[in-house]
Design goal:
The complex is a heterodimer of chains A (349) and B (419). Chain A is 34% helix and 19% strand. Chain A is α/β, with parallel strands linked by helices and 349 residues long. In chain A, the strands form three sheets. Chain A has a six-stranded mixed beta sheet, sandwiched between helices. In chain A, strand 5 (114-118), helix 5 (123-128) and strand 6 (133-136) form a beta-alpha-beta unit. With 419 residues, chain B is an alpha/beta fold. In chain B, helix 6 (278-295) crosses helix 7. The longest helix of chain B is centred in the middle third of the chain and has 21 residues, at 144-164. Chain B is globular. Chain B starts with a strand and ends with a strand. The chains are: A alpha/beta (349), B alpha/beta (419). At the A-B interface, strand 7 and helix 8 of A face helix 5, strand 20, strand 21, strand 22 and strand 28 of B. Strand 7 of chain A pairs antiparallel with strand 28 (414-418) of chain B, so a sheet runs across the interface.
Chain lengths: 349, 419
Amino acid sequence: MAKIKTVYYVNQFFGQEGGEEAASTGIKVYEGALGVAKSFAEAYGDDCEVLATIVCGDNYIAENLDEVTAEIVELVAGYKPDLFAAGPAYAAGRYGVACGSLCQAVGGRLGIPTVTAMNELNPGVALYRKSTYIVSTDANARKVKTDTAKMARLAKKLVNKEHISSPEEEKYFAKGYKRNVRLERRPAKRAVDMLLNKFNGREFITEIPLPPKEDISRPAAIPDLSKATIALATDGGLYPAGNPDNMPSANADRFESYDISSLDTLKEGEWVIKHNGYDNTFSNADPNRLVPVDSMRVLEKEGYIGKLYDEFLATTGLICTVENATKTGKQMVKYIKERDIDAVILTST
Amino acid sequence: MRLTKQYIDIKDVLFDSKTFIEDHVLHINKEELLEYIDDYRLRDVKIRIAHPGDSCRLSNVGDIVQPQYKVDGMTFPGVVDEIGSLGFGKTIFLRGVVVTEILEMPTSIGQFYDMTGPALEYVDSLADCIHVTIDAHPTEGVAKNDYFNAMCIASKKAAKYLAEAARDSVPDEEEEFTMKRDNLAELPRIAYVFQIFCHAPLTDSMYYGADGSMMMPIIIHPNEVLDGGLVCRNYYQANNADPTYWYQNHPMLQGLLKRHGKDINFVGCVMSNTPHEVKDKMRNAMMAANLIKHELKAEGVIITKEGGGHPQIDTALICDNCTALGVPPVLALKEFLSMSNASDEHVIFSTANADAMVSTGCRETVLFPKLDEVIGDTPFNDITFAFDIDPTNEFFHEPEGIRGAFSQLGVGDFSSEKI
């Protein structure tokens, strides 16, 4: 049977370079398993072969996290491993962040399972739990063998693509995603039970948590519209015919801007909607009904507004992840702020 | 109001020279049925039968409807028959068979249905049903919306035609749906907001044949929905809307009715739509909450929705309005943002009043196998990437693509867990 090729990462302390005084140690590569990597490999079993243990000082990586991460990922990639493991970092902040950053980067680049371990107090948990499996440990390195064994058991399941049970059972920090389960009590029963509990002031547990509340305040009104430059933006997916920028029909993570400086109206056929979330028939027949260039030109001529900005901004908002919507939004804000634009009309669908 | 559903169990369906039911076998005279559903907007109409377990895929599926026939009344009033009241008297329902539309014009978000394999895990009682499919192309020159409308009417006509064959059959089972009014004083008064998704023409449901998109919130009797009063006509966003079958077998309404008089006093149902405009959303939410509080005098309310993103805003507004009037709400939602969002970002609102939510499941990716036969000539497409899926091959897709799955009315036994 082919062995599971593994690369392991530890800091200067677990790499036997020394304590805090050695925290600026640069990257060192040891062939084979060193220290905790050895206990990890033993717990995993005969089919695990640690090709290399990479050691790096906590300060060295913390001071240049992105660059050093990239450098180590290159090294890891060279081994073409099946698995990457790092830590346990316990409550050591710099070490935890390094382990998380490396697991995230290696997983993203090589598409292989990654496992690390740390304590809930470690800032690495909040930063990287979504991108890698982080086994939960005590704050101190009292039970290294048990902890590396927990890492190895989870790693083996990941490598073998076995079913990963709940975070509680497998002892890892929930990655923050959800999957379907089937319950004996059906939704109608659960809803009525929950309502009766709420009505009677008894305890109940929501099955869907509320997202963190974001307060968005209303901006101040524009004192004189006749001097204002207004830009148009849409998440309704209106692009030039042929969609030259290859914008997606859902879940866009970017926008494009299109010149309308010489246009009084958007003509049917010259603009096409790429968005699967609504009936596009009427907006395709008259694109102004999604991006109202025609009416804005009238307001401009009447002097009601100062100017319609020369470009409009377009993206596709359908089933958009919060991450992508935020990303696109920030790009749009940057674009607006860098130009002489006083207000934006955002048309949605 | 007392509705008696008379169930006739169907174990097999076959074509014959006459339409009748004998020994749980539905015999269909295909020519007579074709004549009955004939519509100038449809051409090359084909009727086929698909059995559970067949290696068969239905491509580009429209509505799925359970055959029903109202004895001494109107069947699908406003769609098939003249206007007439529903929710009382006797209605025959064929159990174990459904009429399923196969669309031959692409919709924006396509749906399929497999007669075997993993798809059946997601469709609850539909999984045991034999499908009588109606597959038709549009007559030349017929616009898309007219074609979909014609398909919608044809399937309801077929559903009536097939169930009428059981006029003289002895029911295998009878089920009574009623809301008793006595001995309820001690029980908490619970109401239900059934938020439907009528977004645009042909992206709507019809109530007694009326397009729901201009509808204001109304109090309905649950029996009216269970008796075929609400018909799905959503052809553009079918993945977010329930087929008529799930209105006829509405799990939340049935669940509430079952507990009425036991541990709750189910005081009634408000049906409310999902309009486009903010002003309309505000008005609807206010009116729905007022009906819940002042007309139904509810002490607690359950809210479900259909549709995708913006209907969640309506749900949250109704939740806020009910809370403000002192009626605590519980929401039941599908976690449709679950594919790529962290578990605390599964709803697009953040009102603190939505502190009690039931999950009816989340999205996932499933490999659907290659099947021997495909009914329907038109591929369906993937919502996210808008590419056509080849129904003759295996493919990865989400249960959302299966017609009748991913219902937001509480179909099946799904919930979610954190990983």
